[in-house]
Amino acid sequence: SLNGFSIIQQEWFAENVPLSQIAKEFGTPTYVYSRKALTDAFNAYEKACFKPNGERRAQVHYAMKANSNLAILNVFARLGAGFDIVSAGELARVLAAGGEAKKIVFSGVGKSRSEMIAALKAGVKCFNLESIPELSRLNEVAASLGVIAPISLRVNPDVDPKTHPYISTGLKGNKFGIAYDEVINTYREAASMSNCKIVGIDCHIGSQITEISPYLDALDRVLELIKSLGDNGINIHHLDIGGGLGINYANDTPPAITDFANTLLNHIEAKGYGHLEVLFEPGRSLVGNAGLLLTTVEYIKPGETKNFCIVDAAMNDLMRPAMYEAYHSIVPVKQSNMPNMTCDVVGPICESGDWLGRDRELNVQAGDQLAILSAGAYGFTMSSNYNTRGRAAEVMVDGSTIHLIRERESIESLFANEKLLPA
Ligand code: LLP
């Protein structure tokens, strides 16, 4: 069982609500989130964020690309979270959800001028920058507004996070970050810019990382830089360790959130850098296991070499299997004692890549509901309208209450912004 989701008398529940009831009231496919699971994951980080004397030593900045529904952002904002954004769109969402601008860090390798303007006007805490051209542009934009931009440089610590190559970001040859050997010079350049103020340093080494050692390696590399920067008269106020902590999808064994955060923070203190303010940018570990995708079986199609279980959710709803061959557990909402069959769980889209699970043992019939687990991160946010399919509804369960937090997209809305050529 998962925090927030459990089997009660052979039936899956979200907190106190049977998933079958959600399917009945809201239809499928529908993303279902547990407020309790979101809250517990956040608090697991918070637990590590204070010194014994009660002073804060670290702050969580939720990487909202993982799931940017306003209700989810609002749950975290109420708990005191900061946010990690990567676009003007995400900035607008955080502000609409009640997040505070002064707790926002702005990441990403390609910020546009208009995004910089929006973030400077809002008054974000920090820009995480990745190149000299980006630094010069920000300096110029800040000067034109007559403000000073708080900045941090994202360094590439060149460590192997031992994760999927598509989601590892801290190795040489990667588009992210500033090469280790160029960091000091880039900071010198930044220090010379009239409208930028150096406040921090950051790194992010990848995603779905299930070991602590790559983080400790990256930390050591970054702490070395902080030391040399100090020797060069450049003082760093905060250290942003990025995100990347993995979750359990099937047989993954990531460290527990609190242990992970404590280990890193204790390491920083042990190395003599306890005075730094530390930032975490977790995405997946806050929301991944707090959500699932509820779907209905349309057909069972026996095939020559294998059986197909065709469901009403598809790769447009959950891209991760098609894109990364990611594994998500798939369970029948109502457990039965019928014999199992082996099947591929696939969607209705006209692509062989449209699969959600392969070679699964399931006992299901047409009309049954399935839950695709651990779909709270990079599920809805990566969904599309491919095949002119409206995106799924989203609900959040809080105890015995179901809140509709995003309506299913109507078909008309999908082409409402399109226009015919004149007659
Ligand atoms: N900070 C930065 C600068 C990032 O680029 C990311 C994620 C995060 C934080 C949050 O990482 P997390 O804690 O979620 O691992 N779509 C892929 C994951 C892409 C991650 C991109 N960057 C997936 O579905 O597995």
TrEMBL record:
PROSITE patterns linked to this entry: ODR_DC_2_2 (PS00879)
EC top class, as a word: lyase
E.C. designation(s): 4.1.1.20
InterPro entries: Ala_racemase/Decarboxylase_C, DAP_deCOOHase_LysA, De-COase2_C, De-COase2_CS, De-COase2_N, Orn/DAP/Arg_de-COase, PLP-binding_barrel
Example of a GO MF term: diaminopimelate decarboxylase activity
Domain Orn/DAP/Arg decarboxylase 2 N-terminal: 51-287
Catalytic activity: meso-2,6-diaminopimelate + H(+) = L-lysine + CO2
Residue numbers binding pyridoxal 5'-phosphate: 244, 281-284, 378
Modified residues (N6-(pyridoxal phosphate)lysine): 65
Alphabetically ordered keywords of this record: Amino-acid biosynthesis, Decarboxylase, Lyase, Lysine biosynthesis, Pyridoxal phosphate
Residue span, Orn/DAP/Arg decarboxylase 2 C-terminal domain: 31-376
GO biological process: lysine biosynthetic process via diaminopimelate
Pathway: Amino-acid biosynthesis; L-lysine biosynthesis via DAP pathway; L-lysine from DL-2,6-diaminopimelate: step 1/1
Binding-site list for substrate: 284, 320, 324, 351, 378
Family: Belongs to the Orn/Lys/Arg decarboxylase class-II family. LysA subfamily.
Stated role: Specifically catalyzes the decarboxylation of meso-diaminopimelate (meso-DAP) to L-lysine.
Assembly mode: Homodimer.
NCBIfam families per record: lysA
Name of protein: Diaminopimelate decarboxylase
Lineage: Bacteria, Pseudomonadati, Pseudomonadota, Betaproteobacteria, Burkholderiales
